[in-house]
Amino acid sequence: MVSDPGHRVRLRPPENQVDRRAVRWWSFRTIGSEILLLLAVVVSALLLPEARFWLLLVAAALAVIGLPLAIVLPRWWYRVHRWEVTDDAVYTRTGFFWREWRVAPMSRIQTVDTRRGPLERAWGLATVTVTTASARGPVTIPGLDHDLAADVVQRLTRTTQATPGDAT
Amino acid sequence: MTGIGNDAEQTDPLTVEWRKLDPRSVLITLVHATPVIALAAVAGGVSIGEQFGTTLSTAIVAPAALVFIILVAVFDDLRRRRTSYRVLPDSVELREGILVRNRRSLSRDRIRSVDITAPVLLRLFGLVRVQIGTAEQVESGDSSVVLHPVPAAEGDRLRRELLEQTPEAHGETTDSAVATFVPSWIRFAPISLSTLLFGVAFFGGVFRFAPAGVFDRGLGVLASLSVTVAIGTVIGTGLLVGVLASVAVFVEKWWRFRLDRPASRTLRVRRGLLTTRSISLEEERLRGVEVLESLGHRLLGGAQLDAVATGLVEEASSRQTGHKTLLPPAPRWDVDQVSADVLREAVPPIEAVRLQKHPSAARGRRVRWGLLFVAIPVVPLLVLGLTVSPLFWHPAWISALILIPVVVALAFDAYHNLGHGISGHYLVARRGTLRRSTVALQRTGIIGWTASQSIFQRHRGLMTLTATTSAGEGAYAIYDLDEEEGLVFAEEAVPDLFGPFLERV
Fold first, then answer.
1. Rounded to an integer, what distance in angstroms lies between the CA atom of residue A46 and that of residue B117?
2. pTM: predicted TM-score of the whole model, two decimal places
3. More exposed terminus of chain A, fewer Cβ within 10 Å: N or C?
4. pLDDT tens digits, residue range B167-210?
5. What ipTM score was computed for the predicted complex, to two decimals?
6. Considering only CB atoms, which chain A residues are within 8 Å of B500?
7. Smallest Cα–Cα separation from B76: which of B113, B118, B18, B25?
């Protein structure tokens, strides 16, 4: 792959989007933690009259900046988070402020984990984490439909078992 | 029990004898524990004595301390008796635990390192501590077996048996060292942060612990001198202490350093003045090397060489003791020779390549980071100058005047040091200023790519490319390269990772 003038080389977006329900799951988390934080600040403002002005200022800032972010970020994430499993590799794109593309070749995959927290279970979602021999290179696919996640795990396990070597 | 011999005389696991740790373990533990218990007893005895009189307090404390010491000894002897290990043809087994019995088995083809440590006390008794490590990347110490203590000869026997198991290993054993300690390397010792820290710590200690009389007399002498001489004396003393201390630490750590190949595919580092260490690693584990240059060493033309190897979790303790260091701070020329020798290359990969420079947008980012760093102390001072008192103007402009040129110079240096390239089988990446790091990583050792881009980087067409690997720190990053050039480079360095996902628009 050699770059030639006139054509820009870039990483294409992975093929699949995460499940639409992930937006609700993420929103629940971001808005939930935003509200908890806001409550904590407001309550301490009520309890500490000396610092009330400053704490209310913080609360106002949290409400004005944090709340819109908490609502918008999950939708941005939904547009950015994408994943793809080919015969040779797992490929993901995540993040809005810090965009990250990760690729892990099948031949180097060591374990495939599925995680389903209580919230994820409530929406029928699952997160698949693919680890390689590197302590720093796990590839995570969040917000998959849990049946689809099971399929992906099965496919990954089958392919990696067929690959010889100890993957280091 | 070596290699091919096993097929002929198949060893039955049941007949291999379990070995025990050395019985002198109790003595070592006693020497360690007695002073601690005695000190605690004296402290306790004094405070009890103030209330109930000396006789009574001695009558209580002395037997209690004795019982404690006996308990510690019995406990350690029990630990020793209940610990046993054996080396089978295909595994190393360890049984340990006083109440809860543990049994651990390491597969021999997974064993990648045998480290032998002998602190002074163990050395006096001719004993060593042996740690056998595997290639697993597990958080805790579960992937290793520690034998503490065994006789020195037994430690050496274990190392040979476990790491030199392949028959061809005995063929081309050479006694010649790859590198040995040169006393002139000690010149690099004082040019480090530790000199400063030791100097400051010395004065901290003086403030805290010096008897009031001595301290006052010292202050009196200083006060009688002129200001310049007094400041000179203080700085000079701190420097002297710092230099002596850092040289002492360097010598303790690196004295009689020797890097050699006791078997054909094994590297071994031996070093230490009081505490001796022997660290062996299979060359198969080596994925590359990292050359580290602190600013001081770089100006003096020196560098340190670290191994980038798989296995052996990087625990905080092992990082401190320089577990992966192949060569202490030494002249650059030696570092290059040793890196080529260790990697079995004709030319050192780092020297053989002209590193590709990064876009100048990367320099702008570094300058801005530096200025941001200066703003942290200066801006609050300016605000105070505006609101509280004009007095704050002076520290503000003085610190800005001193810091801005420094950070800008460092930012330019940091940018100048950014670089990456492909050198034969290796990917070479360089970064850093106060601590410049140049890593040469085997391209076949790269097991994944991560490209990342903050919104600021995206704006300027930069990206950070991270190679993940099972060795060393697990990932090595190339910071702020041109986004297109970076992708093409990634594909060239390790084909078919990002390749299938690249497109042209």
1. 60
2. 0.81
3. N
4. 444 444 556 788 888 888 999 988 888 888 888 888 888 877 77
5. 0.84
6. 86, 88-89
7. B25
